[in-house]
Each structure stands twice: as structure tokens, then as C-alpha cells.
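Budget justification note: compute hours in this period were largely spent on complex prediction jobs such as the one shown. Inputs:
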Amino acid sequence: MLARAKRDATMLALKLQEDAGIDIVTEGEQSRQHFVHGFLENIEGIDFAHKVEMGIRKDRYKAMVPQVVAPLRLKGRVHADEARIARTHTARMLKFTLPGPMTIIDTIADQYYGDRVKMAFAFAELLNEEARALQADGVDVIQFDEPAFNVYMDEVNDWGIRALERAAEGLTCATAVHICYGYGIKANTDWKQTLGSEWRQYEEIFPAIAKSPIQQVAIECRNSHVPLELLGLLTGKVVQAGVIDVASDAVETAEDVAEVIDAVAKFVPKSNIVATTNCGMAPMHRYIAEAKLMALGAGARLARLKLG
Ligand code: ZN
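Corresponding output:
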């Protein structure tokens, strides 16, 4: 029953995106409860039965997390069903999201490896295994979600990007990383209040990301305090520019969306811009999320007319 409901939800998510005029669609993460723990469910060495409380994102908030208790190994495919359902039911370009290694180790307790970096690379190997299989399923873009990149900037430069590259090793489809300030959790909203009017944290990590073989970077641009000029540091990258605010219920107009795309185009060649949402829409009411998807499609069309 649950499997069938997940399949139906995936097909519905695809149809809504297609009707909104979205060119690069996703399965909408309809089969996961959480963007990190969804990947962990089919991994040997993780104890889900005994969750513990852990400080997350440098102790910004607490969460109940599973524990790593033995060597990590994939029991089998993680996302085969939803990737194949999506590939069967859409002819559009298909993007698939996976959590990045640094974000995973920041969302799980370690009772086995005793070393953050070692555990991150263990997860990176498993991610790579699943990513290669997703590519074989016909996925066109694999995106690693790394909100933790915005918390541990020194570690990003030391090993975070290397771990990400390990996860993407050997892929011939497009590869992307999504970084963000976190949405949908009150602790994040409170933290952002302390950051002042200009959020320049990305300045510390963009130069290293620019040098990495990861091809695309997905970043929040709408109603964001990130100075768009920082996008200029991402030389040669495709920028998935967030043009939809996922922290507000106010539905954007096509003009709002086109305006953000226009602003981004001052720092990124327009052939390298893909319009997307600031972050995932999981915390939003469904009817608002759907209206925002329509705005994304309409705004991208308008921008194409204006910018050529
Ligand atoms: Zn995000």
C-alpha cells in the first residue's frame, strides 16, 4: 500500500512540475520522510531503533538522530524505485537529490568510526555507489544537498569538497551541489536574524567550489541576504539560482521571478543560469508550493523572452 502511494505521489509531483513548465523535473522526494535520513534507510551499520539527541549544525539546534554502530555498507539500492518510476513517466530532464557527505555526518551520531572525516568518506563511497546506479537508471543531474557547507567553512576547504568529489567520482551525468542557510526550522530562522544585512559566508567556500569538477551550484537568491555579486566567484559553473522564497507563503509573480533572474544575470552568463527554488518545499502548504511552482515556470518563460 505504502509503495503504491509513494508511486502515485511521485507521478503527481512530476505532472505538476510538467504542467508548471519546469524543464528539469525531480521526483519531489515523495518517498522520503527526510532529505538526509531517506538515504540512510538502506544502509547496514546504522541503528535506527535507538535514536539519540544530538546538536546539529554546530549545535544550532537539537535533533533525534540514528547512530552509526558498525562498518557502513549499502544493503542494496536506495532510490531505484522512485528513479525508475520518474524515468518511466517523464521525458523531461530528470534531477535527483542526495544528501552530501558532510551534511550526513552532521545529522547522525557516530559510535563506530571515531573520526568525522573517515565517516564522511565512508558515506561518500556509498553515495557514489547509489549515484552511479541512478545515472544508469537515466537520471540526468545528480545534486548533493550540503547545507552543512555553510556551517563548517574551514572543514569544507579541508575535506568537505574532497568528500563531495568522492561521492560524484566517475559520474558522466551533470553534477550539482546545493548549499543554503537552512529553511523550515525555527532555530535556523533565529540564527539568520543574527547574521546582519549581508550574508557573505559563501565567500569563503565559493573559490574552492569553483575549482572542483562539480558542475552546478544551487543557491538561494530570492529574498536572500546573500550579495549576488558573490555568484561571480563561481567561475564556469552553472548556477541554479533560487528565485522562489520557500520561507514565505507569499506567492511570487512571474515578474518577481524574472527580476531575480535578471539580477543574477549581472554576475553569471545567462547561458549558465537555471531557475529553481531557494531550497526544498517540504515545509510548505501544498497549495502554496504548487502556486509557487507555477510562478517559477511562468517567470522563467518571461525571463527567456526578456533576456533572450
Ligand atoms: Zn536548502
